[in-house]
Amino acid sequence: MKIAILIGSIRQGRQSHKIAHHLQQALQQRGLTIDLVDLAGVQLPLLEERVGKHPQLPHTAQELSNRLHAADAIILVTPEYHGSFSGVLKNALDYFYAEFNKKVVGTVGVSAGKFGGINAASQLQQVILSLGAFPLPTKLLVPEVYGAFNEGHELTNEHTTRSAQKFIDDFYWLASAVQEKKQLQPLAV
Prior knowledge:
This protein is an alpha/beta fold. 41% of the residues lie in helices and 16% in strands.
């Protein structure tokens, strides 16, 4: 299976990339292929029209579309800004629809506070449903992110470590089940 992990923060001093790298390593240890998509490097312009409808689609949008199509499942990682997920992630998601069709999508919320981005992760689950995808019921929340990792960006918070393991287990189980079903009964194009 191939998993795309989207890092939905581009601001200076961001912290959400740390949990994305942790998930990448943990999923690779399970033998999965990971495509780590850092929106800070993709630089999508503000949405004018979706993929498939845009008369002159930006090259970066087409490349990201190809990467998302190639993924069997997706994980969205976002900080919580003003009680919601990041604007750069929303802009990116608005470009796509078919790329998410019947794929499992996990949500990861990150915050400096004690609630770990619960609002961002919960709101993302609603968007995932609107994209025709299957939101993983288990959310990974990373509270107090500034103290959750050491200087080497290794996860050191015990609670977050246990939460991450449960998230990975649940994500892998559901994504595998959906992938198996798709192999038995391929989607009509």
